[in-house]
Amino acid sequence: MGLKLWTHCNVASMQADADQPYGLIADAALVVQGERIAWVGPRRDLPTELLARCSEQHDAQGALITPGLIDCHTHLVHGGDRAQEFEQRLNGASYEEIARAGGGIQSTVQATRSATPAQLQEQAEPRLKQLLAEGVTTLEIKSGYGLALEPERKMLQVARALGRDHAVEVRTTFLGAHALPTEFAGRSDDYVDEVLSMLGVLHAEGLVDAVDGFCERIAFSPAQIARVFDAAQALGLPVKLHAEQLSDSGGAQLAAQHGALSCDHLEWLSEDGACAMAAAGSVAVLLPGAFYFLRETKLPPVEMLRRHGVPMAIATDCNPGTSPCSSLLLMLNMACTLFRLTPEEALVGVTRHAALALGLGDRGVLAAGLRADFVLWDVQRPAQLAYGLGANPCIQTIFKGTPR
Ligand code: NIG
Ligand code: FE
What we know:
This protein is an alpha/beta fold. 37% of the residues lie in helices and 23% in strands. The chain has an eight-stranded parallel beta sheet with strand order 5-6-7-8-9-10-11-12. A seven-stranded mixed beta sheet has the order 3-2-1-4-13-14-15.
């Protein structure tokens, strides 16, 4: 098979051990064989025998090339929107008050349950297309607005269908423990039984890549989440958790004890939680869109995460209630302006660390042997990706070695 060569580019390889910031390689060459990277490095070092095998040559015209972006936390598939709740909040109601009064997640559950699979997919497509236009090549999609077997299955099937119909890899996460459905009011432990039974069925149908939960006063207790995680582990599925978003309930420690891939949100994370995450190798997925949209004031403890060496990822949390956003580039900017990440930390957060948060060792970095998922950007320096507000300098995306 002939090889494909890209030259006239600068490559931000995002390699952890590179001596340049962003793993930057000036005047680089990148060689692709099939769906994998065969070689990447300074053009002058490109072996001549490899060059001779390149049957397709691409002039990147000075573009910056980064790994394909990875959105590692989304609720992309959901019915309806919550603009009305946005108005209520601007008139003084809090997110928690609305949730306790039966609005919030429950209203999206109703809209999701009543939508057909085709309608759900149709509503998700524009969001997905916006992400793809910004160079996203892998994204995670959660269930969690069905809260019963049939609609949870429907959500996961739509997520899988999106991955089949578009040049993007979709990783599915079962989030049955997202909220207590109204039919289980006052019987949350019974609902957790139901979550365990749904998990068994949906896993057997091949619809689940990972398991998530919402550990919070308005959702599930650590003890309840522990039951879900034990069941996930018995099936060999990795876990992750919406933890310490609105309060510190010790969710991060619990998730870390279960070897969680990631703990997400984390505004109220304690030092003990950060230690536990560092020991377990769990990624801290920071979600600046939700912080911004809920007008939170409690910042995630970024300095503490750095001190403990907890890897930080950034994601959209694309959902109708707390982050109606399908721009990962905007999240890069907000991670810097609101959370004070450096532009390099932010870019690592949507590439190398986002891959880690999904347990994917074959991407997020540009290196020989890894997946040929990469993006050509019309920027001079990598910091411009986090700098623009609402800008999209993406020129072209290559997914599994093929331009899309
Ligand atoms: O990630 N925190 C819980 N779940 C979502 C929001 C769900 C909703 O309000 O619809 C989140 O912020
Ligand atoms: Fe979320």
